[in-house]
Amino acid sequence: MIHPALAPYANLAVYTAMGLFTVTLVCFALYLAARTRPLSAAPTAAADTRTPVAAGRHPATDRLAVATGDSPPVTGGDDAPSDSRRARQIAAVALNLTYLGAACLLAAVVLRGITVMRPPNGNMYEFTIAASAAAATVYAALARSRHWEWLGAFVTGLILAALMAAVLLFYTGAAQLLPALQSYWLGIHVTIAICAVGFFTIAFPLSLLQLAQRRRNTRPTMAGHRLLAVVPDAETLERAAYGMNIVGFILWTFTLITGAIWAQEAWGAYWQWDPKEVWTFIVWIVFAAHLHGRATAGWQSKRATYIALAGYVAVVANFTLVNLSSTFAGMHNYSGM
């Protein structure tokens, strides 16, 4: 049974979240701009009211190091950015908007589920909305507990892009699923995949920033030097991305397992070499290689980071190219995912 009267409210929640994340992205960008000013340019009154920071460190790195149990690494220098009162005010506004945006996306998922009276993850539109909600919720929790305001512009940018794709490219009206998809495994298998994508999405900008920080260390005059001075050092970013990828990999492993069990019930075999199955396995292999390389002595963390980035590209390809291209036509085509 479908309740069409609720469908407009689910869509309204998505549009509201898009508006909130647009403003949030601007606020986080303003926060980074406020933080990239030299220490000497910060208001002295605000600086006098804060606890002195040791030379060569900046607050974002110190807070993240405390949260992970590590000694705060030395970053910056005389040009280390200041956490002025204005920057803190902008960050507070951005974080509150992030919480509201995440709440709107969660509300959209719930309302969509009530509208169609099933788990709201049966097509590309619903998957994108739910994955965006997962990424927003994970980031909101981390931003609150670890003060990851410096990551906000990158995460909200990805979420906003995903929501625009969902509305403009993947939108599907509220409808019942085909009989083959009407299984309790839909709620288990796809929901686990959605949570995995949420963690992978947070790890992706962390890995990009890590590579940029390493390049900054070898080229101090490169463009974006002051912007990169705001974020933690490369080693701290690498550990954070590694933690996100570990959680995502564990969830993706359960995605593979539950998918195989559902395939056996639906098609009579655990594995059919369906393009969707193959690409899901490719994603698992790539992230397994990343985690193995990261834990192997003698491996450069830079190589492991490139593998992690390739894994996220494979996740996006698995969701877009495999679903939309006739080249990858297979047994999953009827699902819209």
UniProtKB/TrEMBL annotation:
It comes from Flexivirga oryzae. GO terms for cellular component: plasma membrane. Residues 123-325 form the Cytochrome c assembly protein domain. It is a multi-pass membrane protein. This is Cytochrome c-type biogenesis protein CcsB. Its main location: membrane. GO terms for biological process: cytochrome complex assembly. Keywords: Cytochrome c-type biogenesis, Membrane, Transmembrane, Transmembrane helix.
